[in-house]
Design a protein that fits this description.
The protein is an alpha+beta fold. About 40% of the residues lie in helices and about 20% in strands. The chain contains three helices and four strands. Strand 3 and strand 4 form a beta hairpin. Helix 2 runs antiparallel to helix 3.
Length: about 100
């Protein structure tokens, strides 16, 4: 099993600064964002694309979907907080929505 290192306070702050749509959650051990789409098909398409990325990185989001809204929470359970895996997923999701 590969060891996963938790982000430092500075790395966590940089993540939130570089990606202001994401908010700290769970006492800094996670980040969360709500994505709003035009309809269910767009939301589902986003989730499908994220699922393929998550599977290839073996790092899966916690999420909730209702119609055109997708709420995402990222954390690395193996690191008991945020890790580079979460940074990579944040960047990937932001790229998918054009940010």
């Amino acid at each position: 099993m590969v060891s996963v290192t938790q982000l430092s306070d500075d790395e966590r702050a940089r993540l939130l600064s570089d990606h202001p749509e994401w908010k700290s959650a769970r006492d800094g051990k996670a980040v969360t964002r709500t994505f709003q789409f035009e309809n269910f098909s767009e939301a589902w398409g986003f989730m499908s694309r994220v699922a393929l990325i998550a599977e290839s990185h073996d790092h899966h989001p916690e999420w909730f979907n209702v119609y055109a809204k997708v709420e995402v929470t990222l954390t690395t359970h193996d690191a008991n907080g945020l890790s580079q895996r979460d940074v990579n997923m944040v960047k990937a999701m932001d790229r998918l929505v054009g940010e």
